[in-house]
Amino acid sequence: MTRPTALVLHGGAGVLAERSYEREVAHLRALAQEGRALLAGGGHAVDVAVKLVRAMEESALYVAGRGASPNTAGRYELDASIMEGPSRKAGAVAALEGFISPITAARVVMDSTPHVLIAGAGAADIARTHKIEEIAEPDSYYQPAAVPDGREIATGTVGCVVLDSDGILCGATSTGGTLRKRWGRVGDTPIIGSGTWADARVAVSCTGQGEYFMRANAAADVSARMRYLGSSLDEAVKGALDDIAELGGDGGIIAVDSKGHVSAQYNSQGMKHAIVHADGHIEAGMQR
Amino acid sequence: MIRVLTAFVFLALAAPAADARNESAGELEWSIIIHGGAGVIERGAMDAETEAAYRSALQAALELGGAMLSGGADGTEVVEAVIRVLEDDPMFNAGRGAVFTADGRVELDASIMVGDTRAAGAVAGVTGVRHPISLARAVMEHSPHVMLVGDGAEGFAAERGLETADQAFFFTERRWQAMERQVQRMGLPVPPRPEGAPAPEPVREGALDLMEREHRFGTVGVVVMDTSGVTVAGTSTGGTTAKRWGRVGDTPIIGAGTWADDRCGLSATGTGEYFIRFNVAAAICHEANRLMFEQHSFEEAAQIAADRMMETLEADGGDGGIVMLFVGQPVWAMNTPGMYRASWGEGREPYVAIYDDE
């Protein structure tokens, strides 16, 4: 029997009603097709997740990688994290400056250091040591994708969750943070358990008002609800989002479980997303 | 998740959560539990004088917290006040007396969380603030954020007028020499002593050995339940000796090193990377809630949940310990030979211990 594979991508839960997101949705759909082909060819969940997130980072279509926003000090400080299940290997970088693909740096932390989270200049040192691609012309590289929405805690992230044919799960998340974010602010994206999670049960990636996701321990909460409440994947994701709403926040969560069920939900206006279901069917859009 | 479980408990017991709390809180109107780090702390490894000094520091911290709580102080105030004392005490790996990075600097992490609102604040990589726990609290109460790191955190501390300290303030000779020993072992150059640090002096070899074993993951943490029934948890640390590259451990990670919710609060100390990957603090609280629903007493539920996590960690190669309050009931667990710890509460005798058989 062939084991199921599935994946979900998100391009952020920050959506403005008056704007068209045709380009983003078309891009996500194309990435979903690419991901489906990689998985059909036996691709490893971590390789697939990193490849797709990197494509989103390089596209400048989302608030991550090239589309990131400068912080209040005028600097581009990027965050990313990755986790693999069932092994629970994890890596994350916070406030990384100068590199094309923060998710690739997070993977290096996971694979090549004894640590999980590295912040600031040290993250750049590790990325450089491992020859992660640097940005040649930082002054002209960034093309901020974020549109100010007037809120103090804004949203903008990309993420990917994958189940591969060997039953390996991976969650990966990358962000350029919030528009005009305070210098040194770290949101949920590089926090294992908040913005990203993967274990034997499920892989999760979150996007939204990061502070609420941290206080709700949102990504790990999806797994906890499945484990302790016996929730289905959809129920668990909804429960985690309801908890965030109760704290006063909004955003979205994508998840895939070990059986190939997928979930993509949000309590914001919408979430740019694409899904490859276990039967190969692809779905992409702003709203579900 | 806690609220959903609470809903189940409502149905199961047909009683509001407040009653569930008071059921045992008759004699537990306030409660406090403290840790000062876990590690290979074994009988005979420490001289009597040093051991007595640790016990008396824990006792003093306990008395401060207990006096505040019995006087009706707010839980957040108490957690901050007690951790400030431990941060200032050079015996513990937090604030003054923290370990050094491979670059010869002190880089401090801290976090705090309030259970009823789940408000939280955290800082990482702080080098010039005397009390990182106070900065974590300021992030929680005076910024829209949960976590600030590095220079940005220092800038916020300056805006809030928090007390600064230079690197010489945090300096202790034995921590410096422990770092020197470690970087040499790692084949790295020994960094220059911080400006303003005292001239080198001899440190007893045995003291260095002891420190290496006990402070591979030293941390301080406090969990309290105040007289209004709110649980608050906080943790503060200097991290690991000779850490590199801006490594961040579990201490400032909400859900890993610190967690507080409606009825549970927890502070962890250990090999931080494992504690992050197992989401230790929140996971133990979630499991305790579930076990409570399975007819266990509060104390049993918390103890089973904590012990299970320690076993899981050990199987994966992680070690350390936790202290927690579950509906005010103090519980500790560790998979190391020792953990500096203390607890007290209304109607209970103060408890101060180091070794696992106490």
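Chain B is about 40% helix and 20% strand.
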